[in-house]
Amino acid sequence: MTYFERLWSELPDVAPEHFALRRDFLLETLEPHARVIDVGCGAGWFAGELARAGFAVVGVEVAHEPVRRARERFPELEFLVVSGRTLPFSAGAFDAAWLGEVLEHVVDGIGLLEEVVRVMAPGGRLALSTPDHGRRLRLALGLSRRAFERHFEPRSDHLRFFTGRTLRALLEACGFEQIVIGRSSGVLLASALAPR
Question: 113 in a domain, yes or no?
């Protein structure tokens, strides 16, 4: 069993963390009726909300269990298991992309974002969320060895940690423009335009 298959087999089937906050950000950020790829769609919660709001959405995930859950929850939507570095879509197939709590889990964030750019139309909208490692959290982790060790547990599924500045640097490295990053309740919320 792969790492993410094992992880998903142990996760309860509940709404994602900060669901309402992230859903509202997503729906406010995307242009109405856009074709959206939900990268790291999990059990389909955000894809379902996008479809209800009139978006054409396809969800992709690296493990079978979340896709099974998503298909069961939203049988009218398309969810695919993808492996490897290439998304199974032609260049420019989507107007927008959503990466909700994904970047912190991947080894090659630049590689993933470059592939997302490939399947987005030039100037398409990227929306993403990731945990915020702002000043207060960094200070708290620096003052407590126990908190630091718990947070950076080597068996955790979080491989990367972002501040607003490091997230901006990653997006700029991939050519994204008009980057806007906000924070709320321990979450970084970012939007940007794909290179033209």
Answer: yes
CA distances from 32 to 43, 86, 95 (A): 23, 27, 10
Lay out the sheet containing 177-184: strands in order across: 78-81, 56-61, 35-39, 94-100, 120-131, 187-193, 177-184
- For 14, the token pair is 């509940």
Question: Per residue in 16-60, pLDDT tens?
Answer: 999 999 999 999 999 999 999 999 999 999 999 999 999 999 999
In this prediction the pTM is 0.92
Count of structural domains within the chain: 1
CATH code where residue 186 lies: 3.40.50.150
Question: Token match 């970047």: residue?
Answer: 103
- Tell whether 143 is covered by a domain: no
Chain segment 114-161, per-residue pLDDT in tens: 999 999 999 999 999 999 977 777 777 677 788 777 766 766 677 788
Q: Are 4 and 42 in contact (CB under 8 A)?
A: no
Q: Which residues are catalytic?
A: 101
- Locate 25 and state its tokens: 């950000």
Q: Would you say 70 and 58 are in contact if contact means Cβ atoms under 8 Å apart?
A: no
